[in-house]
Amino acid sequence: MTAHASHPELTKNQALVFGSLSDAGGPLTAYAILDLLRENGFRAPLQVYRALDKLVEYGMVHRLESLNAFVACSHKGCSGHGTAAFAICEKCGDVREFTPDEAISLLRNWTESRGFQLSRTTIELRGTCKNCSVAN
Amino acid sequence: MTAHASHPELTKNQALVFGSLSDAGGPLTAYAILDLLRENGFRAPLQVYRALDKLVEYGMVHRLESLNAFVACSHKGCSGHGTAAFAICEKCGDVREFTPDEAISLLRNWTESRGFQLSRTTIELRGTCKNCSVAN
DNA sequence: TTACTTGTGTAATAATATAACGCCAAAGTT
DNA sequence: AACTTTGGCGTTATATTATTACACAAGTAA
């Protein structure tokens, strides 16, 4: 799997949604995206959700389950790679994406030893980032 | 942290909610719990959510972020323990709780090296359990 | 007594997500 | 060309999940 292959061709709506997530530089809810894109003619949540489905499928956007929000993959021009993990600061909202290969591999060992066919892994760490704990 | 300490005293509502989750033997949404407990006088979602908040705080119930559902901790009489992970079968809905200590420790290493104060870890594996992949 | 805390009941509403419909354009046939 | 298939799109309505706000009751600490 190439970590930085070129984008698939995006439709207009997909490009708009991806653009707003990239510009935001952090997570947005579907409805926040909708509001940002009303000036571009968006009118209904489904326009956002449909685009997000595709972008997530392409690996260009990640869904943060514990926030019900979405974030652009931190790899520029990313078109899909392995499982990512997220450290989410509850103070400032900052989200750091990382790839804990060893931990993921241990989790995969667990699933394989039980005959569990793994299709998707969610790893989300909630807490306080360095900046925010210093600043108190 | 004791893994099987005795319950805190539960209020009536908390005991009812915990009971329905235990009886279910699997995840339930808050509204599914509400429907189960209508015969016990429950009338509003908040009664369920308030009880769930406490039960999660006590560590007796886990929230499954990727399902927006709740499940009784698989340790009988559990009153809180370390981070758990969940393997969720998308075919049959079965949820297996486990404790991948090494993986969790690697994730904690990552956070510590970045000065990230970790407060809560979510690990959820989606896929197909052994039974369901055999059965096709 | 007062004040404070915790749990409760209720109504209303907010926030997140999907179903169902029909239209259109591109691409691949026959 | 006509026909079909596919994917995306727009719209309305609705379903699902979660919270805000307000009032009350019981316990307990001062």
What sort of overall outline of chain A do the alpha carbons produce when their principal axes are compared?
Answer: globular
Most extensive interface: pair and counts? A-B, 35 and 35 residues
How many beta-strand elements of chain A? 5
Q: How would a crystallographer describe the biggest sheet of chain A? A: 3 strands, mixed
Structural class of chain A: alpha+beta
Q: What radius of gyration of chain A results from the CA coordinates?
A: 16 Å
What is the tally of helical segments of chain A?
5
End-to-end distance of chain A:
41 Å
* Helix and strand element order of chain A: HHHEEEEHEH
- By oligomeric state, this entry counts as homodimer
Provide the spatial order of strands within the biggest beta sheet of chain A: 4-3-5
Low-confidence stretches of chain A: 1-5
State mean pLDDT of chain A (0 to 100 scale). 92
Q: Report the β-strand fraction of chain A as a percent range.
A: 15-25%
